[in-house]
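Q: Joint fold for the lines below.
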Amino acid sequence: MNLKTFPGGLHPPDSKQGSAGQAIETCPLPEELIIPMSQHIGAPAAPCVVVGDQVKKGQEIGAAKGFVSVPIHASTSGEVVAVEPRLHPMGKPLPAVVIKPDGEDRWDDSLKGADPSTLSVDELKDRIRAAGIVGMGGATFPAHVKLSPPAEKKIDTLLINGVECEPFLTADHRLMLEESERILDGIDILRKVLGIKRAIIGIEANKPDAIEKLTQEGAARDIAVQALEVKYPQGAEKQLIDAITDREVPSGTLPMEVGVVVQNVGTAAAVSDAIRLGHPLVERVATVTGPGVKTPKNLLVKIGTPLGFMVEQCGGLNGEPAKIIMGGPMMGQTQLSLDIPAIRGTSGLLIFRREDLPKRLEAGPCIRCGRCIGVCPIHLQPTTIAAYARLDMIDETEEYNALDCIECGCCTYTCPATLPLVQSIRHAKGGIMAKKRTI
Amino acid sequence: MLAAVLSLGGIGLVAAAALGVAAKKFAVEVDPREAAILEVLPGANCGACGLPGCSGYAKGVVEGKYAPNMCPPGGSDTVEKIAHIMGLEAIASEPRVAVVICQGDNRKASEKFRYLGLEDCNAAQKIADGPKTCPGGCLGLGTCERVCPFGAIEITPDGLAIISREKCTGCEKCVAVCPRQVIRMTPLEATTHVLCNSHDKGPLVRKYCQVGCIGCTLCKKNAPEAYKIEKFLAEVIYEHHDKAADVLEKCPTKCIRDFSTGYPEGSSFPPPTVPVKPIQVD
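A: Joint structure:
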């Protein structure tokens, strides 16, 4: 097989065997759904229901504020019992709508599906926006924004990201195996919105079953599949573009600069639901795994389901949890508690016990081994930027292109001195952005 | 030989004459007062005056753009000298020192999570609003210590910032850099302070800190003119600071401290002498 890839990166143990063979299971309704108003990049939605309101599944409960923002919907039918700040995956209490399900899980009757061929491009885009569709890979960038490039940017390629390069996660893998029809239908709709023919699905070579299935089914619709070398971060947007199209996205620009739009396989499936069925984004597939979980599974969860409830569906905790991560182990966010709800970007939930964690030594001095530079997929000098960041020399970090860092975590992973390189660079990026705002 | 001497000497003469003319013609007038002011300024280039360095401030004073009392590190002494150079009347500013209003080090205050990242308070604060459970407590990662141009701040072994009342010049650099606003400017003569920065209700404060203010109002009841309570947090009314020390024993969590009796636990600074600096009246 002809495998493509990008320069740099590394090979963390993929640890996917625990959940890769588990078919997607529907997670039952919890007692309470906590639906945060901030689940996407951009302005948080504004709650548009009050305590005591009866809501239907799919009804808008948070209105979008601005173009780079999407509405939030009720994940099931029931009563609004609170509109208040609740602990958010970001680690602090943020506004949320809490729904007590009535158990009927009834869709809002006003939601109507349509045949995409009867809709205009603008109508399609509007439905995608109204359905609250965001990038399901974890970054949660509003999909309609990516689908609305300025007129001067000519798009010629749609890349569909089925790479799932983060260790442990298998949600996209299962989705490709079980819901390929919805994914391919979503790709058709996305092609129509962008007005292009060329669509390529990128999949890492460690998922041969998914590659085979989508290659066969995609051929009829003129959708190609590209097998990719197993390497992290192969699923990062710019690395995927480099690997498949051989185009380099210039520093400080978006993929549209080189004529490419990238969407996750989960996003494509959600687009299909939004158009054909009229269903907004109220559930997603998430992998619940890690040594701290009894039986790892891939769950179809309603947005707002508390993480602890998801763990219960997987046989419960296996020992005392010491680290809870939402997302993958490389880029995911550590969580403070299992009371935090799953959101649109929750691709996985990983639980580790103390004995599974590395016995971390104190961060030592940089020994100038250069491993971080070797693995950086952007060709930055992480150690240099981090050293400047520690000294708050923000101008120097900008000269070393700190803003181009995609925070993939390769440098921190490989650092023998266990230096917090990504965090230092992120600190520098914050400083650069703050400086730009004041000028 | 002769030709070489003459030609080189000639070039030398011409160049010297040109330089002489240029020096006269393009001479930059430097006000001697500017140099004199620069001489009396502390020279730390700390930026407390709001300008990039001491020379910028000196220039501004001479140009009449700035008052002579804008250098807190210099204190009243420097104000007087600058005023003398400029022939102005001195208006001394009240000497102020920075105080960390928290005593909750790693042993006394609880943590939300174990932080293993960059040793920088601003970086730590970006992760779930900082590892300390208390939303206002000192993180103790030393960002203020590193920014202090006068070496007036130390971090105790248990992770609490403490500011020396003798070394602090009131430049406010630490105040600007602290992500939790736990450093306050206070009059130097006031030695009693409420060392807590949490506006949470009492029972909640008790859960995460042994030495936090629980808003019990006992201090205000016993010395009504010296204390006020705002959102479950006591504060000294500094106009009446002399009465504040009377109620130290009454405070159930001992979050009120009189610095004349010493610094919080873990500090290596010797107890400040009282009064710490002679208070000058101009």
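Q: Anything notable?
A: Chain B touches chain A through 13 residues (CB under 8 Å). Chain B has two domains: 32-86, 96-261.
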